[in-house]
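Quick one:
INPUT:
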């Protein structure tokens, strides 16, 4: 039977298999090149969105409004205030001083009231600031009958059901009447509640004296009372030097337990997208990104149409669909943010005496940034699809895929023990230690313990018996036992993968070797590599023969060994080539005869070595 009539796997010849493999190589190289262009374009887009000035603008505004000391109390600031009295000191002191910069440092009048304040002389205050509060109704909680004679009023925590919509205080003024919430306005997640828009709103003035007089009037008439649960301070700035908007929100929460909790948000965003030449370059990259997205969607639809249900059996196809979905969401967020920016900026230019709600834009812009960040993350992860660049990366991929079942089983056992310790810590230390104040905090505190960041003194002080027991047993079982089991699973699997690679069980397709072989072929065509390889091979053969003569071997043995070496190299080149690696390679009768003769010669060589060893052993005895 000749090689031409020998068929492989139901009708596929050896030549056809080689042709298919070459086609697969070309397709993969084209796909890799196209994807790298897409990835570079995406990186330019993402880094073009981030401006180093964003951090410094947020930092200087935080220092001005959060860290400035209160009047007559250098140790307190908005960051640390704990009472209503300190809150009003902040409103009438650092807040007003930070908002209104109407004169130069030499008391020289620099800007008119019409042009608004310029914070730090560079940041224009857009429109007017806004202060609003959310309240809860009285008798929204039940008092135990035995204490009803002592407690007549009861204000529960803030929820939509407990919110107060009625007017109070000086009902004739707008600051004391309730304003309904907008349906499109985002909710705010605070420390002790989730708050919606609306409430009792105070619009400040462009004049510093008028704003201070308004704050004094609100304080004297008890605008903040027992029913108050949150006070928001919102305003926006624009810095033309770096083309950035800074949207600022300061929040003071008044929990049902009493006291005061403060938090803040500083969002520096670029709402005017196209100003400089670099911005127009980014715009061209955005157009290229949309073209890539359209091309990739068409490619995936063709694959789904070709492979049907088999398409969804590959993990890489699921990753491809996730990446396309994220790209589509990013384009949608981008279009929505730009449209809303255009509409809101137009309204602001028409009326500069109103509050511009840029927090709405900042909220969606942050979501857009998050989507882009996740997109670029999975875009880099997709590079592992082309992981056969070299043997090391392929070993890593094989190790992770092989030990996945063991890792899933280990993860179930790990999280059972981890959750048990988290609940124990929350119940025992939750009321005393901040790290265990909630169940979520307990989980993250235990991860920090594993990394070496823990507060053992606080745990021991909260419970001097269970504290050390909890800490020692957690370290023993989680750190010394479970983590070492995880490392053992990885190490054992990696050893198995290395053993398989050492005996030739490599992946069917190694892109790196194909690229290397292509480069060698080019060099050989240019006659730069062929002569050098022949010369090196000739020198190696001459050195081996000379070394054998010095050791006492005769010419016949040397010639026979050289013949065996050439025969072995020829067979290894044929049967261990990287061009075709499959468990079911076709074998002709001529090839089988050559393999049989090679096995016979190996048997003779082994018999000859055995005789030599026996002679050596007899001489030693």
């Amino acid at each position: 039977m000749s090689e031409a009539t020998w068929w492989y796997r139901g009708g596929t010849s050896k030549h056809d298999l080689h042709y298919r493999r070459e086609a697969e190589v070309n397709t993969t190289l084209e796909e890799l090149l196209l994807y790298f262009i897409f990835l570079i374009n995406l990186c330019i887009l993402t880094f073009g969105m981030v401006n180093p000035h964003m951090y410094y603008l947020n930092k200087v505004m935080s220092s001005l409004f959060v860290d400035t000391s209160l009047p007559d109390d250098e140790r307190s600031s908005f960051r640390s205030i704990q009472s209503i009295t300190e809150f009003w000191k902040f409103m009438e002191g650092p807040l007003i001083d930070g908002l209104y910069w109407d004169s130069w440092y030499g008391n020289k009048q620099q800007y008119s009231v019409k042009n608004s304040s310029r914070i730090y002389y560079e940041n224009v205050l857009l429109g007017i600031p806004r202060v609003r509060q959310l309240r809860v109704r009285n008798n929204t909680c039940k008092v135990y009958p035995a204490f009803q004679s002592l407690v007549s009023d009861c204000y529960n925590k803030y929820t939509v059901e407990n919110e107060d919509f009625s007017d109070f205080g000086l009902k004739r003024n707008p600051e004391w009447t309730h304003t309904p919430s907008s349906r499109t306005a985002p909710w705010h997640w605070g420390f002790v509640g989730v708050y919606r828009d609306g409430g009792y709103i105070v619009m400040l003035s462009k004049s510093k004296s008028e704003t201070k007089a308004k704050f004094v009037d609100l304080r004297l008439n008890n605008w903040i009372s027992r029913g108050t649960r949150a006070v928001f301070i919102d305003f926006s700035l624009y810095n033309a030097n770096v083309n950035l908007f800074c949207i600022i929100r300061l929040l003071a929460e008044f929990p049902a337990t009493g006291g005061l909790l403060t938090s803040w948000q500083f969002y520096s965003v670029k709402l005017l997208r196209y100003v400089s030449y670099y911005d127009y370059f980014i715009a061209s990259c955005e157009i290229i990104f949309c073209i890539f997205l359209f091309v990739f969607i068409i490619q995936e639809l063709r694959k789904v149409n070709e492979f049907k249900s088999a398409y969804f059996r590959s993990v890489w196809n699921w990753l491809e669909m996730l990446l396309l979905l994220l790209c589509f969401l990013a384009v949608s967020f981008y279009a929505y943010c730009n449209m809303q920016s255009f509409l809101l900026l137009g309204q602001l230019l028409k009326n500069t005496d109103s509050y511009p709600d840029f927090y709405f834009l900042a909220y969606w812009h942050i979501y857009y940034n998050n989507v882009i960040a996740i997109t670029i993350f999975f875009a880099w992860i997709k590079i592992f699809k082309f992981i056969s660049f070299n043997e090391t990366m392929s070993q890593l991929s094989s190790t992770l895929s092989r030990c996945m079942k063991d890792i899933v089983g280990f993860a179930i056992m790990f999280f059972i023990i981890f959750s048990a310790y988290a609940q124990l810590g929350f119940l025992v230390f939750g009321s005393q230690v901040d790290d265990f104040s909630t169940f979520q905090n307990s989980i993250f505190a235990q991860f920090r313990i594993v990394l070496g960041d823990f507060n053992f003194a606080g745990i021991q002080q909260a419970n001097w018996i269970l504290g050390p027991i909890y800490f020692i047993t957690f370290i023993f079982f989680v750190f010394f036992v479970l983590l070492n089991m995880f490392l053992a699973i990885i190490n054992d699997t990696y050893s198995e993968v290395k053993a398989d690679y050492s005996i030739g069980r490599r992946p069917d397709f190694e892109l790196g070797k194909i690229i290397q072989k292509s480069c060698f072929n080019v060099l050989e065509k240019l006659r730069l590599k062929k002569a050098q390889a022949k010369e090196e091979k000739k020198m190696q053969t001459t050195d081996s023969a000379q070394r054998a003569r010095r050791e006492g071997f005769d010419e016949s043995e040397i010639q026979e060994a050289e013949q065996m070496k050439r025969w072995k190299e020829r067979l290894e080149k044929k049967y261990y080539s990287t061009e075709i690696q499959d468990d079911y390679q076709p074998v002709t009768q001529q090839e089988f005869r050559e393999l049989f003769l090679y096995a016979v010669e190996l048997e003779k060589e082994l018999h000859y070595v055995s005789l030599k060893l026996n002679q050596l052993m007899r001489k030693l005895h």
